[in-house]
Design goal:
Layout: E1 5-10, H1 14-26, E2 31-34, H2 41-46, H3 48-69, H4 81-105, E3 109-111, E4 115-119, E5 122-125, E6 130-138, E7 142-144, H5 152-155, H6 159-162, E8 171-175, H7 179-190, E9 194-198, H8 210-222, E10 226-228, E11 233-239, E12 242-247, E13 252-255, E14 257-260, E15 264-266, H9 273-276, E16 299-301, H10 312-327, E17 341-343, E18 348-353, H11 356-364, E19 370-377, H12 380-383, E20 391-398, E21 404-411, H13 414-426, H14 431-435
Parallel strand pairs: 1-2, 1-6, 2-3, 6-16, 8-9, 8-14, 9-10
Antiparallel strand pairs: 4-5, 5-6, 7-15, 11-12, 12-13, 17-18, 18-21, 19-20, 20-21
Helix pairs in contact: 1-4, 1-10, 3-4, 3-7
The structure holds flavin-adenine dinucleotide and nicotinamide-adenine-dinucleotide (NAD).
Cofactor: FAD
GO molecular function: flavin adenine dinucleotide binding; glutathione-disulfide reductase (NADPH) activity
Protein name: NADPH-glutathione reductase
Length: about 450
């Protein structure tokens, strides 16, 4: 068969862009890529990047309060959302252009339109053009999902909409207790929006270490964020000042906006997967093997659309491993073990490895026993300002192996700290390796190498 492309990538997000660039520039393949919205995908346009810039913006009121305690005569004044949004989008445009230019420089042919599969070797663009492709990589990511509640999509907004708001509401109700719910709650609260969270479960951030979740929830509440656990929304009605909401617990209230942060669905609708014979899992994710290959040998999938670990660095690594496997003849399975991550709340939660609960379950199932080292303290910077802010550092250590199997940090800049702890833990460091590492003083992170006795 004659092919138009050695590789065609559908989706110009974190995973797709990296795979396309490497396959073209390093492996010398003829590569095409289709992006239906904006180059850079979720992370650059409506995820990590604009979110982190909003995190920075939201920190200033607390910093200014601290500055006052340190002797500065400063006042927060007011926040100009429109000015910030203008600057934010100028920055996103700049990044989008860089992504496009880098792909072009690498020799990738970009098609700025939607693409779908026709068969195992054919893609079709929106304008009807078809291409024969030796390999096809699906990197279409995911999109916010709304619960099946009447009015949710019409009256509610998703994280996509936050970055485009004309003005910040006076109040917001956030539904959900995951990454996006907690980050957006801290951001919007920091920017002066009265913020309430409703979540179904008993605590925010299911799946994270229980002690870390409790510590963070307390801190978020102390900042003025109202968190209602065990609460589901059952009715939404549009009113002049926003949306009136009724809950399963009998609560009724009106909020300027209602943000659904209730998870994301893999973007597979109308992609032609059935026609091509690609199989989906229970949550609509594309099923792949350890090399990101689907059941159809010429079709691979990476990133959020595969529902494995939904993080940008993971999508990128899956893209790199795909190119190694398919174009360099070096079969490279993707390593999803011990992926560090951070939730950019106030303060941040950094985590790598197992939680105390997981360690308990593993032990009860006949696995290794474990020790918990933990400390909670008032950090020097904010203690000076007489705030009650506390930091939590926690290590889960294998009792026999002595390996540090989990690390959980709730602290300002925990994302930066967990990146470095993650290296040691990925290398298999033991508690004694941590102990013989000299502290850097005075820092918060020094507690990671000075915890002497297990607390449990
Ligand atoms: C609010 C938010 C904050 C986040 N913060 C972080 C963070 O701090 N750190 C982190 O690691 N991760 C974060 N994430 C997750 C991260 O953004 C994703 O894991 C990552 O973007 C996944 O990359 P991807 O390549 O799989 O897909 P995406 O980046 O979603 O890219 C998929 C692309 O495919 C395009 N597309 C879809 N279908 C088609 C089609 N048929 N034809 C053509 N184009 C198509 C889409 O328009 C999109 O541009 C965040 C996500 C959100 C929503
Ligand atoms: N800092 C980061 O790295 C970062 C930030 C944002 C997002 N992400 C990635 O994006 C993914 C998606 O984030 P997310 O916050 O949308 O998902 P999530 O899975 O973290 O949270 C979804 C929340 O919605 C709740 N929920 C689901 N259905 C519901 C319903 N019908 N009614 C009420 N509540 C419901 C869940 O219980 C959960 O609390 C994350 O898993 C993460 O991998 C990462």
């Amino acid at each position: 068969m004659e092919f138009d492309y050695d590789l065609f990538v559908i989706g110009g997000g974190s995973g797709g862009v990296r795979a396309a660039r490497l396959a073209s520039a390093e492996a010398g393949q003829k590569v095409g890529l289709a992006e239906e919205y904006r180059m850079g995908g979720t992370c650059v346009i409506r995820g990590c990047v604009p979110k982190k810039l909003m995190v920075y913006a939201s920190h200033f009121p607390e910093e200014i309060k601290l500055a006052q305690a340190y002797g500065w005569t400063v006042h927060a004044g007011s926040f100009d959302w429109k000015q910030f949004r203008h600057h934010l989008h100028a920055e996103l445009n700049r990044l989008e252009q860089i992504y496009t230019t880098n792909l072009e420089k690498a020799g990738v042919e970009i098609h700025h339109q939607r693409a779908v599969l026709k068969d195992p070797h054919t893609v079709e663009l929106d304008d009807g053009t078809t291409f024969k492709c030796r390999h096809i990589l699906l990197a279409t990511g995911g999109a916010p999902s709304f619960p099946p509640l009447e009015g949710a999509e019409e009256l509610g907004i998703s994280s996509n909409d936050i970055f485009l708001l004309d003005e910040l509401p006076e109040s917001i109700l956030i539904i959900g207790g995951g990454f996006i719910a907690c980050e957006m709650a801290c951001i919007l609260n920091g920017l002066g929006v009265k913020t309430t969270i409703f979540l179904r479960g008993a605590q925010i951030l299911r799946g994270f270490d229980d002690e870390a979740r409790g510590h963070l929830a307390d801190h978020m509440a102390s900042l003025g964020i109202e968190i209602h656990c065990g609460t589901s929304i059952i009715e939404m009605v549009k009113v002049d000042s926003g949306v009136n909401v009724r809950t399963s617990t009998g609560h009724q209230g009106t909020y300027g906006k209602v943000l659904f942060a209730t998870g994301r669905d893999p973007s597979t609708k109308g992609l032609g997967l059935e026609e091509a014979g690609v199989k989906l899992g229970r949550n609509g994710e594309i099923l792949v093997n350890e090399y990101s290959q689907t059941d159809v040998p010429s079709i691979y999938a990476i990133g959020d659309v595969t529902g494995r670990v939904e993080l940008t660095p993971v999508a990128i690594r899956e893209g790199v491993a795909f190119v190694e496997t398919v174009f360099h003849g070096r079969p490279t399975p993707v390593d999803h073990e011990l992926v560090p991550s951070a939730v950019y709340t106030q303060p941040e939660l950094g985590t790598v490895g197992i939680t105390e609960n997981e360690a308990e379950r593993a032990r009860d199932a006949g696995g290794e026993d474990f020790e918990v080292y933990a400390t909670s303290f008032r950090p020097m910077k904010t203690a000076f300002a007489h705030t009650d802010d506390r930091v939590l550092m926690k290590l889960i250590v294998g009792k026999e192996s002595r390996k540090v199997r989990g690390c959980h940090i709730v602290a300002p800049e925990a994302g930066e700290m967990i990146q470095l702890a993650g290296i040691a833990i990925k290398m298999g460091a033991t508690k004694e390796d941590f102990d013989r590492t000299c502290a850097v003083h005075p820092t918060m992170a020094e507690e990671l190498v000075t915890m002497k006795s297990p607390v449990r």
